[in-house]
Each structure stands twice: as structure tokens, then as C-alpha cells.
Amino acid sequence: MTTIRTLLAIAAAKGWHLHQMDVNNAFLNGDLEEDVYMELPLGVAGQKDGQVCKLNKSLYGLKQASRQWNTKLCVALQKMGFKQSVPDNSLFTKGKGSSFVALLVYVDDIVVASSDLNLIKQIKVQLNDSFQIKDLGSLKYFLGLEIARQKKGVAVSQRKYALELLEETGFSDSKPVYSPTVPSHKLSKNEGDLLDDTTPYRRLVGKLLYLTITRPDISFATQQLAQFLDSPTNLHLQAAHRVLRYIKGAPGQGLFFPASSDLQLKAFSDADWGACVDSRKSVTGFCVFLGEALISWKSKKQATISKSSSEAEYRALASTTCEVQWLLYLLAEFGVHPAIPTAIYCDSKSAIAITENPVFHERTKHIEIDCHLVREKSHKGVIKLFHVSSANQLADILTKAHCPSTFYSYVSKLGLLNIYNPS
Asked: What pTM value is reported for the model?
């Protein structure tokens, strides 16, 4: 999904055309490498007991069907001159400058982007010769994402998905709230009464996770709810219902990729030390912008316990550095080369000092690998750390709960837009 958001941000800034296609009966195109037999379906003339038939082509339902289809599509695209991307195998690129074409594949859904509309038409013809495709025209609806485009940029939302979720859970007419979490209450696995049926809670959290593709404002709340999938309680369900009431306030809110973006990377890294009341593990949060467009973010509990806030912040820096490095590789596939070093903003002076101090001591020797990673990228000029005040630390929204006024101040700086808002 980060690759999709990156493509949309670059297309908005460079004015590329965005089109989509769908392959008809994609899995039936796969060639089988193994001998696979199936029982004869009922109603076949002359059927006898114990008879089977050998498959020459792949069928829906076979375990290897998706892999065989992907292999055949990759071979066909490479014959057309496309190169498969190393950072993301679902991305294929061809050409340079005005003849550049980027093609994104998700099973049988294909998005193609280029500044040359005639080139896109040629690719559609070539693909149709190899597979029977359905030309869906300009990109408008892809994997549940609603894409709206105008001169100012590209807006992406999941309004239809959000409304269906509200209707399914019975919250279509609920009273909206202005923040998805309550700052004064931290969820714990030991509070509340266990639910008799955990399936609705798990289904709800799964759907909320998919909604975070365009809603970074609910990422922290959803991450917290996902910690209790094994044994949720009534209080966890109440917290999930609050997220639904927050979504009810603006179901059409989503990302906006402006056409005036400068295509320079910058990142914000933050951590909440000992945030988990059950394990005392910290929470990592980061968000990465391409110009003014938010393309990547994460809210995740750290794997190990940190002995200090500096250590927690430094582990978050390591995660942010890895994401920035991967994005630089990905952007190079699109022919975009941002100026380096990439600025990473951190609100911990001690974490920045650890990066600049080459000496390992008692407080840092147990996080030596993270130290080496961040220091190496810093010394090579890939990243540069800058201190930022907590009030301007945008990743703070991904690490802890906030009151509505503070929460709104952070959300307003993330580049979100609700095109369905009459105002």
C-alpha cells in the first residue's frame, strides 16, 4: 500500500495519467508445472468410479493457482520490456523521461501510470493480446480506495468502505466523537469481562486495520485494539465502538496528494516509553512525507523492553531509518531522486546525541545494532537528524492518545482532506 500511495503522490506532482485494467479469469491463464489430477465433476457423460482427469491449465481453488498466474504475468511483462522492481516485486517500470511507464499489479488488478497517454493505450493493446483484459479507464476505484483527481491534486479515501462498516455494525446513526481514544484510559488485558463470542471483535479490528490505509488518524487506536485479539473484553469492545463513532464524524476523510509537491523526503520519528501497561514495552511511531504528501506511517509496539526513553526513541529512529532507505530505493524505480540527506525530525536530544557520539557505553552497548544502523546512514549522508519540539512532532499522534483539541492540531498537519465536507 505504501507503493500505491507513493505512485499516486508522484503522479499528482508530475501530472501523470492514471489508468486501470482488470484481467478476466486471471487464474485460468496459469500454466501448471506439476501433474495435477482432479475428480470428474458430477454430470459428466460416461463417468465411472475412480476416474480422474489431468489438468493442463490452472483452476480457481488450486493452491498454486495464484503463483502460476503471477509467474505468467511477470514473463509477459518482461517480454514487453518491463523491468520488475527489486524493492517491490508488484511494481514494473519501463523507459525514461517522457516515455516512462509504471505498472502496479495486485493479483488481476493493474494500475498503469505515464505522462504519455498513447503509450498507455499501446500497453493495454499488448496486454489484451496476451490476456483478455477489461479496460476500466481512468483510475477511480482500486482495492477499496476511492481516487478523485483535479488540478490541485489527488484525493484518496475509503468512504464507501467506511459507510458499509458503520452500517454493518449499527453505528450509522450514532453520535460522533472528535477523537478515537480517551487519553485518561489505557487499555489492559486484565480489565473488563471476557466476551462470550470474540468473532465480531476480531472482524471489526480487521476491518479497521484495512481502513488505516488512508486513515493515519486511527492507526494508534487500531494498533491498541489489535493487542487484545486473543481474549477481548467488553471494555476493549467499547473502545472499538468509540473508533467507529469517530469515523462517523467524517467517513470520507482521506489522504490528499497535492500537485505542487516538491518530491523531497522528510520523516518524523517518535516513541512512547513503557506505553503498554501489561508488558511495559514502548510504542514506535513514524510518518514519512514526500513533499507535502503523507506516503508512509507506522504505529507499532516495540519487540523488546527499553530501559530508558532514549533507548525507546533510538529504536524508533532505527525503524524510521529503515523505512526511509527503502523509500529511497523505491523512488529511484520511479525515476525520482530526492536530495539527500533526508531530514528526520526527533524530539529526543539524547537519542540524537547517541547518534553523534561514536563511543558505546553502559547505556547503549545493548542496542549496538540499532546504533550502528542509524550512525552508518547518518555518516553516509543518507539521513540527518534534527531536533523538533514535542508540539511539532507529528508522529506523536501515532504513539499515544490525545485530547480532541491536541488531536485535531496534529491531524490538521498530516495533509488529510475530506472532499465530502460541504465547507
From this structure: 0.91
